[in-house]
Amino acid sequence: MKRVELQPVGTLMEVSTGTRLLDGLLSMKFELDTACGGKGLCATCHVRVHQGGDELTPRTPREERTLRLLDGADGSSRLACQCHVLGEGIVVELPEGVFVQSADALVQLIGHKADYDYLHPITGKTLIGKGKIITRTLMNLFVTLSEELRKLRDEG
């Protein structure tokens, strides 16, 4: 078994060698969305690897393409659905914020302040910042977003 440290929660995750990082996180009951179904086409499982990146499988060409599209991606960025754990000493930072999957998820929050950042599931860009008021005008944006997600799932 290999141990992976998860930040900022400070939890150790134990997985078998070769386990996909996403599968390990899901087994720990972390609520990571997989808008593209784990095909490496979206931002919903974007994590940052602060240590032990060489103990994960190398980036795939698909992962490289997707990371180039992500807002704020850098050299520590990985898609948890595209990398497998090979060794010890890995420290992974989990994303903060919530990836929006549909307008329906936010309708009941119109007029309220966002408790956290709401993020675009394909680009990772902040759509509604923490503390901002959620407005009906933003719902039009999410209708378009829902269509983009449907196309992404169909294409993958």
Automatic annotation (TrEMBL):
Organism of derivation: Frigoriglobus tundricola
Keywords: 2Fe-2S, Iron, Iron-sulfur, Metal-binding
Keyword DNA repair recorded: no
Gene3D superfamilies for the chain: 3.10.20.30
2Fe-2S ferredoxin-type domain: residues covered: 2-98
UniProt superkingdom: Bacteria
Similarity comment text for this entry: Belongs to the adrenodoxin/putidaredoxin family.
UniProt-listed GO biological process terms: P450-containing electron transport chain
Cofactors named for this entry: [2Fe-2S] cluster
Pfam families: Fer2
Name of the protein this chain belongs to: 2Fe-2S ferredoxin-type domain-containing protein
Gene Ontology MF annotations: 2 iron, 2 sulfur cluster binding; electron transfer activity; metal ion binding
